[in-house]
Amino acid sequence: MLPSINFQSDVENRNSAPTYGKEAGNSLRTLDKGSTMPTITPFLWFESQADEAMHLYCSIFKRSKVISTTKVQGRVMSVTFELEGQRFMALNAGPMYKFNEAVSFFVAVETQAEIDELWEKLTADGGAPGQCGWLKDRYGLSWQIIPTALNRMIGDPDPQKSSRAIEAMLAMSKIDLPTLQRAYEGK
Predict the structure, then answer these.
(1) Which of 98, 113, 144 is the last residue of a domain?
(2) What is the C-alpha separation between 25 and 16, in angstroms, rounded?
(3) What is the pLDDT of residue 31?
(4) Residue 36: its pLDDT value, please?
(5) Would residue 35 count as lying in a domain?
(6) C-alpha dihedral sign at 96, 98, 102, 108
(7) Please, are residues 123 and 115 in contact by the beta-carbon 8 Å criterion?
(8) 155 and 136: one domain?
(9) Which among 143, 165, 170, 133 is positioned nearest to 152, based on CA atoms?
């Protein structure tokens, strides 16, 4: 059993993080047959910008909400929030670890307008475009903004269509859905 952390009277928000075990409360999901399984929550390490990042992400994604903020001695230590139904936790823990491309958040979208909006907001104020729909936000966190049509195109059983779509995608930074569609169709 993992030890619990008690921050005593200097914790302003007493909402506990999900735990693994009997007393887990809402961190266990009930499966169809009545059994339970733990949820998995991405946990992000920030130097000192967890609260700022949470508010940025919640301002970008339409279905989002702040769940909790835990402060220790007047400073934000951790935050919990939800984006598009996915819960996240973030910690202010110093400069020891940085984000890299080994972990990214994949955002499936339907339209070019969604691609453009998310791309603009996530790369603003110090973010950077990558290749093939990847980008880094101002905190160095990697995101993939990918149209759902891409998977259909590159998975097409017609190898010519699939190859044209892959070739077009590889030449892109931000995905351009109309250009991708034209390449896929051979136009």
Answers:
(1) 98
(2) 10
(3) 58
(4) 73
(5) no
(6) positive
(7) no
(8) yes
(9) 165
- Tokens linked to 8: 């005593």
What pLDDT score was predicted for residue 35?
67
- What CATH number is attached to the domain comprising 154? 3.10.180.10
Q: Decide: 184 and 159 in contact? Cβ < 8 Å.
A: no
Q: Which residue is it, tokens 């109309």?
A: 178
Q: Tens digits of per-residue pLDDT, 118-139?
A: 999 999 999 999 999 999 999 9
The answer to whether residues 140 and 61 belong to one domain is no
137 and 123 co-located in one domain: yes
| Inter-residue contact 64 to 83 (CB < 8 Å) | yes
Look at residue 161 and tell me if it is in a domain: yes
Taking only the tens place, the pLDDT of each residue in 54-102 is 999 999 999 999 999 999 999 999 999 999 999 999 999 999 999 999 9
